[in-house]
Structure formats: structure tokens, C-alpha cells
Amino acid sequence: xxxxxxxxxxxxxxxxxxxxxxxxxxxxxxxxxxxxxxxxxxxxxxxxxxxxxxxxxxxxxxxxxxxxxxxxxxxxxxxxxxxxxxxxxxxxxxxx
Length: 96
Hints:
Layout: H1 8-19, H2 24-31, H3 35-45, H4 50-90
Helix pairs in contact: 1-3
């Protein structure tokens, strides 16, 4: 299911259960995720503690917000630069 967010606690619980030897198909059924999702989560978050996982998620969210802010400011800067250039180049010469 695209866009379905799994909480840090559920990811941690899922991975800990996977380490105990429970069959992957059973885990996927229990948590209602695809096998590929399980393996992606395991590769990305395997071996982390819950606190590490939460901190990583916080940093990823902060990074996403900072990228959006940078994109907005960059676009605003470009628009202002274009407006200033049009005003300077569009002005008739005073000496002619």
C-alpha cells in the first residue's frame, strides 16, 4: 500500500521479530506489508536500536523540510533577480 507510514516502534518490533527466526511471510502478513518492504526496512534499519531509529526519522524529516525551504528561497531569489534585471535593462537611457 503506497503512502502507508509505519511507525518507528512498529519497524523496530518487526525487525526484532524477524531476528528471532519467524518466517518472513508470517511477519509480512501480520504487519500487512510486502516482502520487498520488509527487506528494504531490514537493510535500512537493521541493527539499530529504537532511539537510533527515531532520531534517524527525525533527521530525515528535518532534512526534507530544509530542502523544501531551500527550494522556495532559491525560486524567490531567481524571481527577484529577474525582476531587477528587467527594471535595469528595460529603463530608457537618460542621455539619448
